[in-house]
Design brief:
With 589 residues, the chain is α+β, with helices and mostly antiparallel strands. 40% of the residues lie in helices and 10% in strands. The chain has 20 helices and 11 strands. The strands form 3 sheets. Strands 1, 2, 3, 4, 5 and 6 form a 6-stranded mixed sheet that branches. A hairpin with a 5-residue loop joins strand 2 and strand 3. It is elongated and about 105 Å long.
Length: 589
Amino acid sequence: MTHKREERRPAPSPHPSKLNDRHVRQVLDLVRASGILDDLAPLEAARPGPRGLPAETVLVGLILAARETRSTNIDDAWECMQFRLRKHWLQYFGLRPVDATDIDATHASAKRFYDAWSRITTLLDPARHDRRTRMARHETEPYCQAWAHPRNLDASHALSRIANRLVLVPVRIAVARGLMNDWRGDLSVDTTAVPTWARPSTRRHASLEVTAGLHVSGGGDETFGYSATLLVAGHSDPSTSRRYPQLCMGMAIHAPSKDIGPQAVRLLQIVQRLWPVKGFIAGDLAYSDAKVENFHAPVRALGYKVVLDYKTTMVKKEKDAPEGTIAIAGDLLCPHTPQRIIDAYHQMSAAKGSSQREELLPLIVQADPYVLPLKQSADHRGLERRQCPAAGTSPRVTCPWAQERDADADRSRRRTQPPRTARAAHTVDLDNPRARRAHPGARPTVRPPNSPKHQRPAICQQSTVTVPADVMPKLRQELPWGRALWQRAYRGLRSHIEGLNGRAKNVDTFLHAREKRQSRGRVAQTLLTAVQLMVENLRTIESFLRERRLWKAEYYTIGEVPQTPDPYEARDVLEESDILTPPPENPAT
């Protein structure tokens, strides 16, 4: 149902400007290429009653309204279709010419359009109910349970499928045109607020949006509505900046603070079918604190490498560190690591802002010599070999226990093997930084206590130890936390998602403006948000091409889109007949 404010809108202008035929044809081609009409067709066929206006008419109207009037309200979409199209387009979309001054005719035309929109939302709604009156709180339980299905994150799989088809059709255009060739598969994920045109629940009465809630932003601001999990294409290496458009790669609308990890994983599964190259994925503290089985483990299983920050409470020594090591912030350290190194981890976690972390970089880098290097990757049992930092041909630290251990090993070796030829002494080239670092005098010295051999940690009694590869699964990262590479990757990827949030909430996309998206219901909010992000992706492509002075209106046409992978199809290549439908008989393209 629509809001009363939409029903009381003044009559449209009797002389509105006509839309460019080429723009209408471009939007029509995009809707066809997305594949959503094929998804809606069987659902509409199973519904009794008259057909009314086709779903194509409503969807084209919403996209035109988002592009031309900066609104996704149904009345604005109707006005675009009824009063701004030329006569041959009216005939194609099933609309009758109407005089804007004829009140009865305009009401009848608007009702047909509203009924078509209501039919679409009803087809995709697993728990339809009357949104004109507020129910008692106990009456909303069946509807909330229908959206919180325990076996599937998608209470309406067709809804999320259609929404992401809309969002991804510009991405498929970019892939077909080769605009994403320099993208290395790096992504950033975040959850932003999608406010709704409804009041929150009271003690007795529920909100008209029964599954909505309070979305709490990082700054503590509360917004009543839904949460939108968004993926954006980014890069961890600044050298690839401005070489591809930073597009929204997926969207999921869900209840605030619910299943943010699984929703992100579900979007990654869609993206990997569209773009096989997998890189880093960055998220904020909410994803760092997610359950391992909900986010960290499935993301790594998909082949992506996480780049996450830690809360201050997460940077602490693990009590059950394997083989006597020190486990902190995803690193395995020597058991005799100086306290100042441990303090550097705590200082880095407490630092606010990239400038403070850059100042602390020399301190955290001092921990690198004490980190246990990887000797052998994980085997089929999930076990890996780690080496003592004082062992091997290129030790990182000097340790008296390691020297004693090596001396015992040499004596045992001499009993069974011929003695080795002593290496000749050589001078150190002081102009060679690598040679200076390799000299024993340049390495830090570990000062262990006086303890008998049998009481020493396992890592001190032997040069290598076997540890589980999934030790600290919530904190483990491919890029060591706090170091220069991690700071560069995390700062860059996080700036990309914040940039998308900024673009999506500006005056053009208006994702934050509930008055521009007044239709009630989770289905309506999902579809309208998808339309907004689709139009934002189109604007991003256009802006990218303008910067490169490659902009042409033909880049919006369907072109090679059917030849790009559809993430919802089992086939890698779609036939043109699977997507395209015959054009109107008399379009002036």
